[in-house]
Amino acid sequence: MRVLSLVNQKGGCGKTTAAIHLAAALSLAGRRVLVVDLDPQAHATLGLSALGDSGPSIADVLCERVTAREALREAPCGLSLLASSQSLAEFEDESARIVGPERRLRGALEEVADQFDFALIDCPARADGVLTANALCASTSAYLVIETGAFALQGALRARALFEEVAAQQGSSFDRRVLGTMFDKRTRFARELLVALHARFGAEMFDTVVRSSVRLREAAACGRPVFEIAPRSTAADDFHSLAAEVLADRPRIGRELAPASSLLRGPVGPVGPVQTTDRIKSVQDLRSANANSDNTSGIPG
Ligand SMILES: Nc1ncnc2c1ncn2[C@@H]1O[C@H](COP(=O)(O)OP(=O)(O)O)[C@@H](O)[C@H]1O
Ligand SMILES: [Mg+2]
pTM score, two decimals? Predict the structure, then answer.
């Protein structure tokens, strides 16, 4: 079972939307997929039409009141869900009295590992804390979700550094990937930012970037993935394409990475020679699109 965490210490950047829709797309591609809602705000639970307080939740699992198997719920698109509830706060309080509290989720997921091909963990909007530590400890990959808006590059580097710190503290080894979301290709700013993100994160960036789509907001509002309400939307296309990349991906666990602290130094903007892989071709396309108009974004081109 591959365990993927969607992380960023910033709220509202599209983590929950990515967790639900990547999970649903992997499920529609025939994989057995579990969604773990590790955010006390329970947005993934609500986004999958499930009420957090009506049955055993992930909090009961972490507090060892029930097993993960006992807490599984059915969700749309053939997904299974470990729902969030307000009692996640109780686990956070109790964790000071537990030995190795950050290993609880990993233990729980091992128990259902034969039932699923993927588990996707929707993380709370913070880098510290016992819940995020649990997610990173259980993960084979951490996907940093970046909203392609103002200050996104600086935010991405800061987020990356924070999560590297947590990983180093607990000796976790997981693969790192970066996903751009809420992309509006009509704005020059967003296009230039995407070039900058590719230049900075290189092969860690997914080729797929999730475009801004009102359908995703509608899906969240009615508690069903976009595949059920608008299967032919750009949002559905984007998440199918992301799922295809994830399925083709071979996690490079233990791969050497430049320490995030070194990434934080130096100028912000596209760096290094332009590469000639297929991945960068699309970025070159973006560069030439950008060259046709004035640079107004403040990102050096
Ligand atoms: N690609 C997108 N296009 C338009 N709206 C989006 C997109 N991704 C997320 N949203 C909306 O933005 C808000 C925050 O997204 P969410 O996934 O809950 O972020 P997070 O989990 O990081 O707090 C939600 O209302 C969601 O519907
Ligand atoms: Mg969320």
Answer: 0.86
